[in-house]
Specification:
2 copies of one chain form a homodimer. Chain A is α/β, with parallel strands linked by helices. Chain A contains 14 helices and 13 strands. In chain A, strands 9-8-10-1-11-12-2-13 form an 8-stranded mixed β-sheet, with helices on both faces. In chain A, strands 3, 4, 5, 6 and 7 form a 5-stranded antiparallel β-sheet that branches.
Amino acid sequence: MDIHDLTRELKLKSDSKIVMLVADGLGGLPMQAGGKTELETARTPNLDALAARGVLGSSIPIMPGIAPGSGPGHLGLFGYDPLKYVIGRGALEATGIGFELRDGDVAIRCNFCTIDAAGAITDRRAGRISTDESGPLAIKLRQITIPGVEVFVEPVKEHRFVVVFRGAGLGDRVKDTDPQATGVPPLDPVSDDPGSQRTVEVAKAFLAQAKQILADQAKANFHTMRGFAAKPKLPSYQEVYGLRAAAIAVYPMYKGLARLVGMDIVGQAQTLADQMDLLQQHWNDYDFFFLHFKYTDSTGEDGNFDGKVKRIEELDAAVPRITALNPTVLIVTGDHSTPAYLKGHSWHTVPTLLVSDCCRPDGETQFGESQCVRGGLGQFEAKYLMTLALANAGRLGKYGA
Amino acid sequence: MDIHDLTRELKLKSDSKIVMLVADGLGGLPMQAGGKTELETARTPNLDALAARGVLGSSIPIMPGIAPGSGPGHLGLFGYDPLKYVIGRGALEATGIGFELRDGDVAIRCNFCTIDAAGAITDRRAGRISTDESGPLAIKLRQITIPGVEVFVEPVKEHRFVVVFRGAGLGDRVKDTDPQATGVPPLDPVSDDPGSQRTVEVAKAFLAQAKQILADQAKANFHTMRGFAAKPKLPSYQEVYGLRAAAIAVYPMYKGLARLVGMDIVGQAQTLADQMDLLQQHWNDYDFFFLHFKYTDSTGEDGNFDGKVKRIEELDAAVPRITALNPTVLIVTGDHSTPAYLKGHSWHTVPTLLVSDCCRPDGETQFGESQCVRGGLGQFEAKYLMTLALANAGRLGKYGA
């Protein structure tokens, strides 16, 4: 029996409101022995006040030692076992640029490349062509037509673009055409799966036309296809939790991930203040709000300890706008750690706080990694955060009599 | 998806070095209410210094409440789920005496017994015959020949010895011949498994010849066969982690367990000083070093609290020879607890410390059970220690994009 078998059975109706504030890459590390983490360094009077009222813990995004990407990191927070539900690379890339995948679509990550007269790859990334050059080329590929299939071509960045095929009977079990080497031609799309043969044919037709269209280009005179992936089948928030859920995010990736689990994407926020405005405006329309804050991750990725500290303080300053709405449950966490010390996503546990009128406070009065280690939620897998949220919101009945 | 599915996919090349120092049966208990454990009693300035730099936690060998033997205890530490990978009794016995099992071998634990004129067992352990008497008898059984099968007979202790059959088509699904009672004859070897019929025939042939050879013995005039077991199929450290791994151990059992997961057995250490010499000599040849220290377990088994304290202090004194080599990751743990108070393996969590330049220190400054309860690694299953080690060594990529 998995988490959703239980929540489907036990979910209760309620007027309660849950807010999950995700500070991307929140967890950190000290820059030197004996030092403090970014979160511990930041002045966070509002988060500390929540810590004092609430309960702390350390979230394990996937399993001990495993650093997640944004996809599995958020699936875990949303209560979807990230080792069971996998978002294919093509689907994640499409999601990340805001493309709304439908059931049956196949999404593919494509790289422009350079081939020589014999067809062998001389540069797998077309000389790292700039976005200014590659964008119009991707648009040019939109002239490709394939009978019975709707074709979408979406620019991404530099040498990358996304292709989506929409039509009946398109499986996604097709192997990459990128040979991962130069001096050899791209591979033909192939598949062992009878259900994906039509996709193979469609991909071949696309590649043949693309080769003609790109023939006169100096650098990007062909492309490879990687990570063929259907839209992942994720049950919706409404179905598994009985929640009308809204996502209030700035970046397309996080809106896309939220859309995959059936959240409504609310507004067009550009700033944290916009996000807070939207939260307030839509307060009566939803039961659950996912608020995403990107900059704790991006400053961490840049190795900018002080920048991350500032961003945490900025987030802290916005907290009163949430608490003013008096949510039944407020959770503050991250999808993973991004310590400035490591300049990237890491495996470390993520500081997490949960406040409700029926949580069991643990005596901690500051929101930091050290306090979270001692917190009442202990160490827990991120995928259990949603059941804790529902329980604290009075939205889960008893299991068994 | 299990741990090794992930590590196979995510493993990265690196020059980093990991040392796992296993103090067998490290965890303990106070001898009286309000007292300290063996580890807390011991003066351990070097381990305490590591604790201050590193992160502590409490390892659960199998699951809460389950005390492991050496086999599952070490499999867990090596990252092999001890409830999934089972080492059959015969194979563990052979491993324990340093016999190098090959794929296809079937190993069997045998007990000398006494039978009466009618063939009924009168003593299932041949009057607990001494090792001095039983050893030569086991050697005598080496004259047994079976066409098409290589036969090995290895003395163990007292009434015990090991038989290994090597040949084609030998399954291990054969039932014990020990009837677990006296007054009845040993059972014939039988099997429900078609793939093990040849093993049944080979075992019968062995028993028939052994009965003749032992006929004139007063006590050990026959034997039973138990725990038929093939060499367990464990993927190797190289394959699942990309690690060249060395085991530096004194006792055959631990060398054998390490060999089963593909570690090289380095040297012929007799003392902890020998082990440290070998570590230093082979430092450039391997990525991972398993160092095994037996005496924390054997003193615990003896109920010798003070002896265990001394052994821990002896181990502590050797730690600077490890840290001098500047390992990227150093782990100190045990395969289980062996509290002197209980004189045996126990289910208690095992104090564990991990040091690397990117662990998240938890403010603890001593290595003891009480500190480990508060440590940043929390309580974790032993099987996750290897993913933590790899992550801290920069040897694991990100899961998902």
